[in-house]
Amino acid sequence: MANTKFPKGFLWGGATAANQIEGAYLEDGKGLTTVDLMPIGKNRFNVLLGNIDSLTPKENEFYPSHEAIDFYHRYKEDIALFAEMGFKSFRMSIAWTRIFPNGDDESPNEKGLQFYDDVFDELRKYNIEPVVTTCHFDVPVAVIEKYNGWKNRKMVDLYERYTRTIFNRYKDKVKYWMTFNEINMLLHLPFVGAGIVLEEGENKLQTLYQAAHHQLVASALAVKACHEIIPDAQIGCMLAAGSTYPYTSNPDDVWEAMTRDRESFFFIDVQSRGEYPGYAKRFFKDNNIHIEMEDWDEDILREHTVDYIGFSYYASRCISTDPDILGDQTEGNVFASVKNPYLTTSEWGWTIDPKGLRITANQLYDRYQKPLFIVENGLGAVDIPEADGSVNDDYRIDYLRAHFEEMAEAIEDGVEIIGYTSWGPIDLVSASTGEMKKRYGYIYVDKDNDGNGTLQRSKKKSFDWYKKVIASNGVDLA
Q: Under the cellular component aspect of Gene Ontology, which terms does the record hold (predicted)?
């Protein structure tokens, strides 16, 4: 371990989201959330984008989140498996609608609060540090019906009350927090990111950036509350990251790549620097966007910046201004990308680029000079059990090994990285497709896309490999 590039106390672990693992979607008083309206199949992406005709589940659709992998009833079994792997941290989210079922209830739901007390106690029993996202793609449906989601400034007050409630409740159990998961997804998946249903003829950019402002102010108020209530805690933001490469050295391609990156950096610029950057102000001016603010908003943003930058990294992106090249795009991921001739792709069309993790980490650290936390990364693949039930996922081990090597190089470059939580340490519902077939985990869950299966947990080959990586603090990647 003397040769490790990873710092002492590095937070190895795994990452999940409440809506993709918990199930029990209306149990113990929980309210309906956006993801509970997202079926598997052809209609899912329409809902992700906000093209939705009903805010109640339909009888003829299958909604994967309603049961998910039933972590709600099986958390002790799952956490014991995480502990066996040697997890130092576990990134999870709190479902807003377990605490305030309608988002604006007069008092919190005690059964929901107690559930997370129990989960945190179980994690603490094994010395696993909870890393908690306060809002991970689960806007309460009731506030969409009542206030039009994050279009409405009222959401700032509701979110502040919700976060103050959970900070006060769990101040002795949680020391790492994040505000909004992949906050930049608001621009690409407005319904899941902000509970936004766009109306016909509505000025889309005006609506999305006004909602973004509301979330940025709400995030700053959560930072303020966290620092007041839990002075020894760290609270960060969370970005869906991945550098954009110009397809050629044509200056137009280079500029377009920078513009695409800025679209995402905009959110983190505000959350970590405390003000709107000049390029954003010009974008607003050029696109006739007027951000309505309260007199104190700029002070709130400036005075309450985040402690660290959390980010997901699955793939780099590539862009061209040549229409012929621009038409040849990868199949996967929300972010449009032309095919990079130097890289391969996963079964779902996501570009596989380990060095891109090093590039992205350096880019973020150069830009913000704040500690980084890699809170999502992994390979979604079809895992086929052998006759004896084992899963020989060498392809996942190869993917992760290559990314860990580049993460170590980033640390050697001088980038401060405090931890790594791979996405889906246990198989879970895919956010983008709703599938179970798209598996990320070290732990196999017996369930198929149609909801059939025993939900039995079993270890894949990668389980023991990751256990070895953690035990050696990244030295033994063989």
A: cytosol
Spatial distance between the Cα atoms of 13 and 148, rounded to a whole number of angstroms = 36
Give the burial string for 343-364 (b: 16+ CB within 10 Å, else e): bebbebebbbbbbbbbbbbbbb
Active site residue 376: yes
To the nearest 10°, report the CA torsion of 246, 249, 254, 260: -10
Q: Which two tokens stand for residue 214?
A: 């509301």
Helix (H, G, I), strand (E, B) or coil at 126: coil
Answer whether residue 2 is part of any domain. no
Alpha helices in 12-109 (DSSP H): 18-21, 44-49, 71-85, 96-99
pLDDT in tens, 172-191: 999 999 999 999 999 999 99
Single-letter amino acid code for the residue at 249: S
Pair of tokens at residue 396: 């996942």
**Tens digits of residue pLDDT in 314-354:** 999 999 999 888 767 776 666 778 989 999 988 888 899 99
Token pair for 194: 């902000």
Which residue in 182, 376, 406, 435 is the catalytic one? 376
**Is 250 a domain residue?**
yes
Cα 181 vs. chain centroid, distance in angstroms? 4
Rg over CA atoms, the chain = 21
Number of structural domains found in the chain? 1
Domain with residue 90: its CATH number is: 3.20.20.80
Return the amino acid letter for 453: G
